[in-house]
Amino acid sequence: MKKICALMLAVVMAVGMVGCGNSDKSTAKGTAKTTSSESKTAKDTLVILGAENWQASLSPLKHTSTMMLHAEAIALEHLLVMDEKTQEPQPNLATEWSYDDTKTVLTVKLREGVKFHDGSDFTAEDAAASCEAYSNADNVSGSWWADELKCNVIDDYTFTITPASGKPLGSLVNMLCSTPMMSADDLKDPENTIDKKYNGTGPYKMVSFENDTATYELFDDYWGTLPKIKTIQYKYVADATTRLSALQSGEADVIERVDSDAASVLESDKNIKVDKFLTTECKHLIPKFKMKPMNEKLVRKAIAYAIDYDGIVKDIFSGYAEKADSFISSTIWGYEKVDGVGEYDPEKAAECLKEAGYENGDGLPELNIYTSVGFYPKTKEYYEYIAACLQAVGINCTVVPLDTSAWGDVLYEETPCYMIDCGWQPSGIEPELKLNSWYAAGRISHYEPTKELQDIMDRFATETDSEKRKEILQKEYLPALAEEMPDIPIIKSMTIFGVRSNVNGLEYTSGADYIFTNVTKD
Amino acid sequence: MLGTVLKRLVQGIFVTICVIFISFVILRMIPGDPAKVMAPTATPEQQQLIRDSMGLDKSIPQQFKMYMANLVKGDLGESYFKSDTVVNVMKQAVPLSLILLVSAIVTSILLSIVLGTVAGLNGNSWIDRLISSIAVLFQSMPNYWVSSVLIIIFSVNLGVLPSMDYQGPASCVLPTVALALPLTAVLTKVVRSSLIDSYNQEFVKVAYARGISKVAIYFKYALRNSVIPFVIALGTQLGFLVGSIVVVEYVFNFPGIGYTVLNAILRRDYNLVQGIIILFSVFFIVLNIVIDLGSIRLDPRMRKAQGGL
Question: Is the per-residue pLDDT at A163 higher than 50?
């Protein structure tokens, strides 16, 4: 029997060595097999595997999902495009834009000769309808906006935009960098058009959508320079290991949301490169204000001081993240570090607890943190780490992992738990995409801004001068948030993409949208 | 025979209705609101509109009544996320899963008969021990692990087979192997033990004494006697196989019924989950009836017990 066991072990090891050995060796020995060093996708095709599920509708009006934003950015364009180095909007479908003296009317001049993928002309009527629909509070996309927009068409290529409140809207020009342009006709009949298929003006048109795969092909009538890659397949693959294997076997060219453990594996593979960069996303621990004592500022501050942010970045993310030191990511327009955010100081935490009347945690109920599993990378791991940090200063806390749907079910509820995790990845670098969605509405925390903070928010929302806006943001808004601590920023997310090394020139925006202009494949 | 079939069918219909009711209630009681999954950042008013359009604003008994009324008309409703009817979604996914199931079953039957026979005819020899040990090994390896190892070996390192998706027959090879291995292991053990048992029976010894050839004894007496436990074991294992297909299809991103149901559960696509549960329960009930009737047909003792059918 021992001999048989030894024999079996030898067979298993032999199979393992043959299978798991370096594939290049088999090539060197002259075998004709395709190895992982060869891409199996066509040279003029880019296969991208996304990690987030498709929504029921493709309409940009009905979601704020990151993967959907990536998918629609392949086909749909915006009026302006943000130069992320200078943080200044640049012409795109709009060539000129200017405010009137009251700063409430923005006149926009459009590029002529632009066509939609269905062959129709892109005109001011389409741009006006898109702006109104995208900012409409009745649509999901309306949650990005601080105000609705009303538009007036002047001629085929000129229209005006006015905030519905009649007040200036400081974020308006930046927001036009994130507002997708759709056909006015499609917006009138969404069920048969934009719900099912993108019809934009971009260099790629969507040709099919089946089996969780969107296929795009070059749009010959594109107004600008056409990219070199002819076809893009954007596919949802649920399992992270399957995405990883597909990249390694050459069946995919790009995979999204590689976690930090897998990144180190990929970095040692010469056929693969790892693109990593900070995005617009921050991850937050959000107190539920209707659950006492989370409405107490000192308790929230004690929690913020008790967390070892550097430890999370180093031990959980292996350096593939940065600690959050503000309420917005450093890629966001006007970012500045704020005192009191991302500061690990257990002594200050103990002082805050004592001042709040909970010395060493005495008198506090057992707190809990609801966290999603399988949506954001490593949430369960870093919230267990956070719970241990809180325990160290006397705050008893348990972590309750939930599947994504169950977590989504309670995210916006008032009293399901004491704290909940959430991240936010704005589609552009305009800070209102985050600040307005989170702090003006307070829909996750149910936080109601103080009068002072509300005043700052209003001034920030209505200031159209870029320098003055920045000053309000940096000197007043962010410090006021740090004083209130309506939530606790934990990390600035790093997006990690795995890319086959024969793919050149792939670039990304800080919202992690793809820029295909210079992409080629060897 | 007809009476037995009718009795089994009535039992089957009753069980199916119970399954529909229980799964209907459980699905709606677990946390996770489809409206919030569909539009997580929508306002409560917008989410309520979505709920209204799905009929989720009504009480569970009302929803169940509506569902059953539509079901008797053959309408399983619409998938919330696929923008298509549940029937159409299942029509696309079922054939792909059937390819996997049938190929896994055929592979397992053939392999297990060969391996089980070799082991059974060489009882207690080294080859018997080797085959039995391999069978235990394959039976104890979880599907997801086997699937991952197969992908690493044949897709990533050797690069000979696709690791995901359905792009033609080659895409079925690895999922089929992942499904077939544990089934082959169980069936091999059944064939082996029943053959050893048969060869120890008096009627086989008498057949040897009568000078009947070894081949004839194997096919006419020993193997034939193994058919009943083999069919029963196969029937029982098919249930596990259908369960395994969910995991295997998920790992291979294979767009069959297992992958579809898992995605539907994660997205709380009630109608689609419900439709697939009905499909699975009907499959199991029909399968059980077929196995029962097959056993009665094959086993004279059971035929006698059923009143001489």
Answer: yes
Q: Is the pLDDT of residue B210 over 70?
A: yes
In this complex, the residue of B41, B164, B166 whose CB is nearest that of residue A246 is: B164
ipTM, interface predicted TM-score of the complex:
0.81
For A170-271, where are the E strands, in sequence order? 204-210, 213-218, 231-236, 254-255
Q: Which amino acid makes up residue A301?
A: K
**Which of B81, B148, B163 to mutate: most A Cβ within 10 Å?**
B163
Length of chain B: 309
Q: Are A412 and B250 in contact (CB < 8 Å)?
A: no
On the question of pLDDT at B16 being above 70, the answer is yes
Residue B307 has a pLDDT of 60
Residue B308 forms contact with A (CB below 8 Å): no
Q: In this structure, which CATH number among 2.30.30.140, 3.40.190.10, 3.30.70.240, 3.30.390.10 belongs to the domain A19-53+199-276+496-521?
A: 3.40.190.10
The answer to whether residue B40 neighbours chain A at the CB level (below 8 Å) is yes
Query: Are the C-beta atoms of B191 and B218 separated by less than 8 Å?
Result: no
From-to residues of CATH 3.10.105.10 in chain A: 2-13+278-495
Chain B positions in Cβ-Cβ contact with residue A40 (cut-off 8 Å): 159
Q: How far apart are the first and last CA of chain B?
A: 6
A265: tokens are 């594996």
- Comparing CA positions, the residue from B125, B12, B77, B4 lying closest to residue B264 is B77
Q: Which CATH architecture has domain A60-192?
A: Alpha-Beta Complex (3.90)
**Radius of gyration (Cα) for chain A, nearest Å?**
25
The C-alpha angle with vertex A501 and arms to A500 and A505, in degrees rounded to 5, equals 95
Question: Residue B123 corresponds to which tokens in the numbers above?
Answer: 């009882």
CA distance A223 to chain B (A): 33
Q: In angstroms, what separates the C-alpha of B232 from chain A's closest C-alpha?
A: 30
CB within 8 A of A480, min separation 6: which ones? Answer: A452, A453, A456
Residues B129-132: contacts with CB within 8 Å, 24+ apart? Answer: B129/A1, B129/A4, B130/A4, B130/A7, B130/A8, B131/B188, B131/B192, B132/B189, B132/B192
With a CB cutoff of 8 Å and minimum separation 6, the contacts of A330 are A278, A322, A492
Answer yes or no: do B157 and A54 touch at CB < 8 A.
no
Looking at residue A178, what DSSP letter applies? S
Checking if the pLDDT of A35 tops 50, the result is no
- Confidence check: pLDDT of A13 > 50: no
Q: What does the alpha-carbon distance between residue A398 and residue B94 come to, in Å, rounded to a whole number?
A: 42
CB–CB contact A405 B38 (8 Å): no
Q: Among B133, B162, B262, select the one facing A4 at the smallest CB separation.
A: B133
Q: Is residue A106 helix, strand or coil?
A: strand
What is the value of pTM for the model shown? 0.83
Say how far apart CA B309 and CA B300 lie, in whole Å.
9
State which fold the A2-13+278-495 domain adopts: Dipeptide-binding Protein; domain 3 (3.10.105)
* CB contact at 8 A, A106 and A99: yes
CA dist A9 to A1, A6, A22, B115, B133, Å? 12, 5, 21, 19, 11
Q: A238 vs B250: CB contact, 8 Å cut-off? A: yes
Q: What was the pLDDT predicted at A33?
A: 39
Token pair belonging to A176: 């036009």
| Euclidean distance between CA atoms B240 and B220, whole angstroms | 31
Closest among A404, A416, A412, A417 to A376, alpha carbons compared: A404
Q: Where in chain A is the domain with CATH 3.90.76.10?
A: 60-192
Residue ranges of chain A assigned to CATH 3.40.190.10: 19-53+199-276+496-521
**What does B8-71 look like in DSSP terms, one character per residue?**
HHHHHHHHHHHHHHHHHHHHHHSS--HHHHH-TTS-HHHHHHHHHHHTTTS-HHHHHHHHHHHH
